[in-house]
Amino acid sequence: MTFAVKIKKWHAVASWTWNAGDDVCGICRMPFDGCPPDGKYPGDDSPVVWGICTHAFHLQCINRWLQSQAEQKCPFCRRQWEFKQAAIGGEDSDA
Amino acid sequence: MVDARSRLFKVYSRRQDCNTNKATSVRPPPPPTPAPQELKEASRNREATGIELIPDERNVYLWTALIKGPKDTPFEGGTFELAITVPEQYPLVAPAVKYRTRIFHPNVHWKASLLRTGEICLDILKNAWSPAWTLSSVCQAIVALMSDPAPDSPLNCDAGNLLRSGDYRGYNSMARMLTCEHASR
Predict the structure, then answer these.
(1) Chain A partners within 8 Å of B127 (Cβ)
(2) Most buried pick, A17, A89, B43, B65, via CB within 10 A?
Protein backbone atom coordinates (compact mmCIF):
# COMPACT_ATOMS: atom_id res chain seq x y z
CA MET A 1 0.00 0.00 0.00
CA THR A 2 1.40 3.37 -0.89
CA PHE A 3 0.37 6.86 -0.01
CA ALA A 4 0.46 9.57 -2.50
CA VAL A 5 1.38 12.58 -0.42
CA LYS A 6 1.25 15.97 -1.94
CA ILE A 7 3.18 18.67 -0.10
CA LYS A 8 1.24 21.89 -0.30
CA LYS A 9 3.66 24.08 1.58
CA TRP A 10 6.50 23.76 4.07
CA HIS A 11 8.43 25.90 6.50
CA ALA A 12 12.18 25.54 6.78
CA VAL A 13 13.44 26.00 10.31
CA ALA A 14 17.09 26.51 11.19
CA SER A 15 18.88 27.33 14.38
CA TRP A 16 22.38 28.49 15.09
CA THR A 17 24.66 28.56 18.07
CA TRP A 18 28.22 29.57 18.76
CA ASN A 19 30.36 26.52 19.20
CA ALA A 20 31.52 27.72 22.61
CA GLY A 21 31.55 25.15 25.37
CA ASP A 22 30.71 27.49 28.21
CA ASP A 23 27.36 29.06 27.55
CA VAL A 24 27.94 32.51 29.04
CA CYS A 25 30.72 35.00 28.39
CA GLY A 26 33.06 35.13 31.38
CA ILE A 27 33.22 38.91 31.23
CA CYS A 28 29.65 40.16 30.77
CA ARG A 29 27.95 36.90 31.91
CA MET A 30 25.55 37.16 29.00
CA PRO A 31 24.96 34.06 26.84
CA PHE A 32 27.30 33.67 23.89
CA ASP A 33 24.23 33.29 21.70
CA GLY A 34 22.95 36.61 23.01
CA CYS A 35 24.96 39.79 22.99
CA PRO A 36 27.11 41.78 25.40
CA PRO A 37 25.49 44.73 27.24
CA ASP A 38 26.51 47.19 24.54
CA GLY A 39 25.74 44.87 21.63
CA LYS A 40 22.58 45.29 19.65
CA TYR A 41 22.04 42.00 17.86
CA PRO A 42 23.21 38.48 18.57
CA GLY A 43 25.09 36.53 15.92
CA ASP A 44 27.47 38.21 13.54
CA ASP A 45 27.11 41.53 15.35
CA SER A 46 28.28 39.96 18.63
CA PRO A 47 30.96 37.52 17.57
CA VAL A 48 32.61 35.10 19.94
CA VAL A 49 36.38 34.81 19.82
CA TRP A 50 38.87 32.38 21.26
CA GLY A 51 42.32 32.93 22.65
CA ILE A 52 45.15 30.49 22.07
CA CYS A 53 44.54 29.47 25.70
CA THR A 54 41.12 28.13 24.46
CA HIS A 55 39.07 30.57 26.55
CA ALA A 56 36.23 32.29 24.72
CA PHE A 57 34.63 35.71 25.13
CA HIS A 58 32.46 38.11 23.18
CA LEU A 59 34.77 40.05 20.89
CA GLN A 60 33.51 43.36 22.31
CA CYS A 61 34.08 42.20 25.90
CA ILE A 62 37.63 40.93 25.47
CA ASN A 63 38.56 43.98 23.40
CA ARG A 64 37.37 46.37 26.07
CA TRP A 65 39.27 44.43 28.72
CA LEU A 66 42.51 44.35 26.72
CA GLN A 67 42.23 48.04 25.91
CA SER A 68 41.95 48.86 29.61
CA GLN A 69 45.07 46.84 30.44
CA ALA A 70 48.77 47.43 29.94
CA GLU A 71 49.41 43.70 29.80
CA GLN A 72 47.34 41.60 27.44
CA LYS A 73 46.25 38.65 29.54
CA CYS A 74 43.36 36.23 29.49
CA PRO A 75 40.90 37.10 32.31
CA PHE A 76 40.60 33.42 33.21
CA CYS A 77 44.11 31.98 33.16
CA ARG A 78 46.22 35.17 32.99
CA ARG A 79 48.17 33.74 30.10
CA GLN A 80 49.29 36.10 27.38
CA TRP A 81 46.22 36.76 25.25
CA GLU A 82 46.47 36.01 21.56
CA PHE A 83 43.54 35.56 19.26
CA LYS A 84 43.22 32.05 17.96
CA GLN A 85 42.79 31.72 14.24
CA ALA A 86 39.27 30.50 13.49
CA ALA A 87 39.13 27.07 11.90
CA ILE A 88 36.60 26.48 9.17
CA GLY A 89 33.83 24.15 10.25
CA GLY A 90 34.19 25.02 13.92
CA GLU A 91 36.17 21.92 14.86
CA ASP A 92 38.29 24.08 17.13
CA SER A 93 35.49 24.14 19.66
CA ASP A 94 36.61 23.50 23.19
CA ALA A 95 33.25 21.93 24.04
CA MET B 1 11.11 48.16 47.94
CA VAL B 2 9.65 45.39 45.82
CA ASP B 3 8.86 48.07 43.29
CA ALA B 4 12.44 49.27 42.92
CA ARG B 5 13.81 45.81 42.51
CA SER B 6 11.23 44.65 40.05
CA ARG B 7 11.88 47.77 38.04
CA LEU B 8 15.48 46.83 37.80
CA PHE B 9 14.53 43.54 36.29
CA LYS B 10 11.95 45.05 34.00
CA VAL B 11 14.54 47.39 32.59
CA TYR B 12 16.60 44.35 31.87
CA SER B 13 13.95 42.37 30.12
CA ARG B 14 13.22 45.36 27.96
CA ARG B 15 16.86 45.49 27.01
CA GLN B 16 16.76 41.90 25.97
CA ASP B 17 13.72 42.68 23.87
CA CYS B 18 15.79 45.34 22.20
CA ASN B 19 18.35 42.70 21.48
CA THR B 20 15.92 40.63 19.53
CA ASN B 21 14.58 43.77 17.93
CA LYS B 22 11.05 43.22 19.20
CA ALA B 23 10.42 46.23 21.34
CA THR B 24 11.26 49.83 20.87
CA SER B 25 11.95 51.82 23.96
CA VAL B 26 12.21 55.57 24.28
CA ARG B 27 14.21 55.25 27.46
CA PRO B 28 17.97 55.16 26.91
CA PRO B 29 19.46 51.82 27.88
CA PRO B 30 20.65 51.73 31.48
CA PRO B 31 24.39 51.50 32.14
CA PRO B 32 25.57 47.91 32.26
CA THR B 33 25.14 46.53 35.73
CA PRO B 34 25.78 43.05 36.96
CA ALA B 35 22.55 42.71 38.89
CA PRO B 36 20.59 39.80 37.39
CA GLN B 37 23.51 37.52 36.64
CA GLU B 38 25.29 38.30 39.90
CA LEU B 39 22.13 37.70 41.88
CA LYS B 40 21.52 34.41 40.14
CA GLU B 41 25.02 33.21 40.88
CA ALA B 42 24.84 34.41 44.47
CA SER B 43 21.64 32.53 45.19
CA ARG B 44 23.00 29.43 43.48
CA ASN B 45 26.13 29.49 45.65
CA ARG B 46 24.43 30.56 48.84
CA GLU B 47 24.00 27.11 50.36
CA ALA B 48 27.54 26.01 49.62
CA THR B 49 29.35 29.17 50.66
CA GLY B 50 27.06 30.68 53.29
CA ILE B 51 27.51 34.02 51.56
CA GLU B 52 24.50 36.27 51.26
CA LEU B 53 24.60 39.07 48.69
CA ILE B 54 22.00 41.80 49.00
CA PRO B 55 21.61 44.60 46.47
CA ASP B 56 20.66 48.02 47.72
CA GLU B 57 16.97 48.73 47.21
CA ARG B 58 17.51 51.98 45.39
CA ASN B 59 21.00 51.81 43.96
CA VAL B 60 22.21 48.80 41.98
CA TYR B 61 25.81 49.89 42.45
CA LEU B 62 25.68 49.34 46.22
CA TRP B 63 25.61 45.85 47.66
CA THR B 64 25.90 44.33 51.09
CA ALA B 65 27.35 40.90 51.67
CA LEU B 66 27.05 38.79 54.79
CA ILE B 67 29.88 36.30 55.19
CA LYS B 68 30.48 33.76 57.90
CA GLY B 69 33.75 33.39 59.76
CA PRO B 70 35.31 30.12 58.53
CA LYS B 71 35.74 27.06 60.71
CA ASP B 72 38.88 26.68 62.80
CA THR B 73 39.63 30.38 62.75
CA PRO B 74 39.09 32.92 65.51
CA PHE B 75 36.30 34.32 63.33
CA GLU B 76 34.20 31.15 63.54
CA GLY B 77 30.67 31.83 64.67
CA GLY B 78 30.76 35.43 63.54
CA THR B 79 28.80 37.02 60.72
CA PHE B 80 30.62 39.84 59.00
CA GLU B 81 29.04 42.53 56.90
CA LEU B 82 30.82 43.77 53.78
CA ALA B 83 30.01 46.97 51.93
CA ILE B 84 30.48 46.58 48.19
CA THR B 85 30.57 49.50 45.79
CA VAL B 86 30.41 48.46 42.16
CA PRO B 87 32.11 50.95 39.84
CA GLU B 88 30.39 51.98 36.63
CA GLN B 89 33.10 50.30 34.56
CA TYR B 90 32.52 46.94 36.30
CA PRO B 91 33.56 44.26 35.46
CA LEU B 92 36.56 45.95 33.84
CA VAL B 93 37.34 47.55 37.19
CA ALA B 94 37.26 45.77 40.54
CA PRO B 95 34.48 46.47 43.03
CA ALA B 96 35.46 48.32 46.19
CA VAL B 97 34.91 46.06 49.19
CA LYS B 98 35.16 47.02 52.85
CA TYR B 99 34.31 45.37 56.14
CA ARG B 100 31.46 47.15 57.86
CA THR B 101 31.88 44.87 60.84
CA ARG B 102 34.97 45.43 62.98
CA ILE B 103 37.49 42.63 62.54
CA PHE B 104 40.98 42.03 63.90
CA HIS B 105 42.88 40.74 60.89
CA PRO B 106 46.31 41.71 59.50
CA ASN B 107 44.93 42.58 56.07
CA VAL B 108 41.97 44.68 57.18
CA HIS B 109 42.44 48.30 58.19
CA TRP B 110 41.67 48.85 61.84
CA LYS B 111 42.16 52.58 62.36
CA ALA B 112 38.91 54.30 63.17
CA SER B 113 39.17 56.79 60.35
CA LEU B 114 36.10 57.30 58.27
CA LEU B 115 37.77 56.51 55.00
CA ARG B 116 39.94 53.56 55.73
CA THR B 117 38.18 51.50 58.41
CA GLY B 118 37.53 48.05 57.08
CA GLU B 119 39.67 48.50 53.98
CA ILE B 120 40.89 45.15 52.70
CA CYS B 121 44.35 44.42 51.29
CA LEU B 122 43.72 41.73 48.72
CA ASP B 123 45.49 41.52 45.36
CA ILE B 124 42.39 40.64 43.35
CA LEU B 125 40.70 43.83 44.55
CA LYS B 126 43.68 45.83 43.33
CA ASN B 127 46.15 44.98 40.57
CA ALA B 128 45.27 41.32 40.12
CA TRP B 129 41.63 42.01 39.30
CA SER B 130 40.14 40.16 36.35
CA PRO B 131 36.62 40.45 34.93
CA ALA B 132 36.27 36.71 35.33
CA TRP B 133 35.57 37.35 39.04
CA THR B 134 32.06 37.93 40.28
CA LEU B 135 30.76 39.56 43.44
CA SER B 136 30.13 36.09 44.77
CA SER B 137 33.63 34.79 44.05
CA VAL B 138 35.16 38.00 45.45
CA CYS B 139 33.34 37.29 48.73
CA GLN B 140 34.68 33.74 48.66
CA ALA B 141 38.18 35.14 48.29
CA ILE B 142 37.61 37.37 51.31
CA VAL B 143 36.42 34.37 53.34
CA ALA B 144 39.58 32.55 52.25
CA LEU B 145 41.65 35.52 53.40
CA MET B 146 40.15 35.11 56.88
CA SER B 147 41.53 31.57 56.99
CA ASP B 148 44.85 32.52 55.41
CA PRO B 149 45.98 35.91 56.65
CA ALA B 150 49.02 37.42 54.94
CA PRO B 151 50.89 39.05 57.83
CA ASP B 152 53.70 40.24 55.57
CA SER B 153 51.56 42.87 53.89
CA PRO B 154 49.63 44.16 56.88
CA LEU B 155 47.15 47.00 57.08
CA ASN B 156 46.68 46.19 60.74
CA CYS B 157 50.27 46.06 62.00
CA ASP B 158 49.33 44.87 65.49
CA ALA B 159 47.63 41.81 64.07
CA GLY B 160 50.45 41.31 61.58
CA ASN B 161 53.15 41.57 64.25
CA LEU B 162 51.43 39.05 66.51
CA LEU B 163 51.42 36.52 63.67
CA ARG B 164 54.93 37.36 62.50
CA SER B 165 56.35 36.92 65.97
CA GLY B 166 54.55 33.60 66.26
CA ASP B 167 52.20 34.69 69.02
CA TYR B 168 49.24 32.74 67.67
CA ARG B 169 47.60 32.59 71.07
CA GLY B 170 47.65 36.36 71.30
CA TYR B 171 46.33 36.76 67.76
CA ASN B 172 43.62 34.14 68.17
CA SER B 173 42.33 35.45 71.47
CA MET B 174 42.30 39.06 70.33
CA ALA B 175 40.56 38.17 67.08
CA ARG B 176 38.08 35.90 68.84
CA MET B 177 37.25 38.53 71.41
CA LEU B 178 36.47 41.07 68.70
CA THR B 179 34.46 38.49 66.79
CA CYS B 180 32.33 37.96 69.90
CA GLU B 181 32.05 41.67 70.48
CA HIS B 182 31.18 42.84 66.98
CA ALA B 183 30.29 39.93 64.71
CA SER B 184 27.96 37.83 66.84
CA ARG B 185 24.32 38.28 66.17
Answers:
(1) none
(2) B65
Q: Which CATH number fits domain B34-183: 3.10.110.10, 3.40.50.720, 1.20.140.10, 1.10.10.10?
A: 3.10.110.10
- CB–CB contact A41 B91 (8 Å): no
What is the domain range of residue A54?
18-87
Residues 22-51 of A with CB under 8 A from B: 24, 26-30, 34-35, 37-42
Residue A74 sits in a domain whose CATH number is 3.30.40.10
Return residue ranges of chain B for CATH 3.10.110.10. 34-183
pLDDT in tens, A56-72: 999 999 999 999 999 89
Which tens digit of pLDDT belongs to each residue from A36-46?
A: 888 888 888 88
Segment-wise mean pLDDT, segments of 10 residues, chain B, 185 residues: 32 40 48 66 80 89 94 95 92 94 94 78 93 93 96 93 96 96 88
Question: Residues of A with CB below 8 A from B37's CB?
Answer: 24, 29-30
Smallest CA–CA distance, residue A1 to chain B, in Å, is 48
How far apart CA B164 and CA B160 sit, in angstroms, is: 6
Complex prediction ipTM: 0.73
Residue A7, in any domain of the structure:
no
CB contacts, 8 Å: B92 with chain A: 64-65, 68
Task: Name B71's Cβ contacts closer than 8 Å, sequence gap at least 6.
Answer: none
**In this structure, is residue A27 part of a structural domain?**
yes
